[in-house]
Amino acid sequence: MIRIPALSSEELIVSKAQEGGFPPVDKAIISQVLSGAQDGPLPKDKALRLLDAIGISREKAIIACSVLEAKIAAIDVGYPINLTGISMHGGESSETVENITDENTMRLEFKRLMLSSDASGVKIAPSLCGARAYFGIRRRARTGHIVICGTYPASDSRPMKYAACSMPVTKEEATQMFLRVRSSFMLNEILFEDCLRRLSALCHFAPQIDSMDILPVVANTRNVVALDAAVIVKNS
Questions:
Q1: What percent of the chain has pLDDT over 90?
Q2: pTM (two decimals)
Q3: Of residues 44 and 87, more confidently modeled
Q4: Looking at the DSSP assignment, which residues form a beta bridge with residue 211?
Q5: What integer pLDDT is reported at residue 11 of this predicted model?
Q6: Contacts for 122 with CB less than 8 Å, ≥ 6 apart
Q7: Mean pLDDT throughout 83-91?
Q8: Given pLDDT bands bounded at 50, 70 and 90, which one contains residue 118?
Q9: Cis-peptide into 207, omega within 30 deg
Q10: 232 within 8 A of 40, measured Cβ to Cβ
Q11: Which of 20-24, 172-176, 198-202 is the least confident region?
Q12: What are phi and psi of 43, to 5 degrees?
C-alpha cells in the first residue's frame, strides 16, 4: 500500500453533496468479487476485475508461448508493443523490450526472451506513453472514504503531491481535483475526472474496501490506462 502523506485542508476537498449521482458501474460483479473476501489484500486478479466492473480502462496484455501466438497477440494489441519475459513461476523478468514497431523485430526479441532458462512465455502489451497518474481510496474512521489522485512524470516512481475529496465526488469536485494535480501535463480531463467519479461509486457500493491503490496509470490526451491495482479489504 502506498503511504499517502497527511493531506492538508488545501489538498482535501470536503464534498458538499449529500447523495451521489454516480456513473454506471456493474454492481453485480463488484458484489461477486468481494463476496466472502477475508480481511487483508485482495488477490490481484480480483483487484483488476474491480477496475473492469467500474469501467476504468486497464492495460491489455497477452501471454504468448510461440512465435505464432506472439504474432497474433501483437496484431490484437496493436503496435507499438512492449515484450516482457514471464518465468515458469508466473513472475515477470526485469527486462522489458519497449516500443517495438514491426513484426521482424518482435520475432527476434520474442525468441531471445524465450531462450532464458526459466522462461515460460512472453507478455505482449501496448507501448503506452504519457504522464503517470495515481488514483486511490482510503477509508477513515471518522470521515469515511476519500478518493485520492496525483500526477507525476514518467521518470519518477510516484507522485509528490495529491488531491483528495470526501464522498461523494461530484463532477465539480472531480474538476477541482484534476486542476490541482494537472501540472503542465497534457491530459484528457474528461477521462481523468470520470475515473475519480467511478472510484467514488466503488466506495459507495463496496464500503468494505479499506484502501485501493491504482498505480501506475498512464495518462495522455487520448487515454487513461491503469497498469496495476492493489486492494485491501476490512469488513469491520
A1: 79
A2: 0.86
A3: 44
A4: 138, 232
A5: 80
A6: 63, 64, 65, 70, 83, 84, 85, 86, 110, 113, 114
A7: 79
A8: confident
A9: no
A10: yes
A11: 20-24
A12: -50, 145
Question: Rounded distance, CA 133 to CA 220, Å?
Answer: 10
Please name the amino acid found at residue 160. Answer: M
Q: Which residues pair with 216 in a beta bridge?
A: none
Q: What angle do CA 123, 152, 81 make, to 5 degrees?
A: 25
CA–CA separation, 214 and 170 (whole Å):
20
Q: What is the DSSP string of the chain?
A: ---PPPPPTTTEE----SS--PPP--HHHHHHHHTTPPSEEPPHHHHHHHHHHHT--B---EEESSHHHHHHHHHHH-SSEEEEEEETTSPEEEEEEEEE-SHHHHHHHHHHHHTSTTEEEEEEEE---SEEEEEEEEEETTTEEEEEEEEE-TTSSS-S--EEEESS--HHHHHHHHHHH-TT----HHHHHHHHHHHHHHHHH-TTEEEEEEEEEEE-SS-EEE--EEEEE---
Confirm if 163 and 10 have CB atoms less than 8 A apart. Answer: no
- Residues 115-142 have a mean pLDDT of 90
Q: Which three cell numbers stand for residue 92?
A: 515477470
Say if residue 90's pLDDT is above 70. no
C-alpha grid cell, residue 117? 532458462
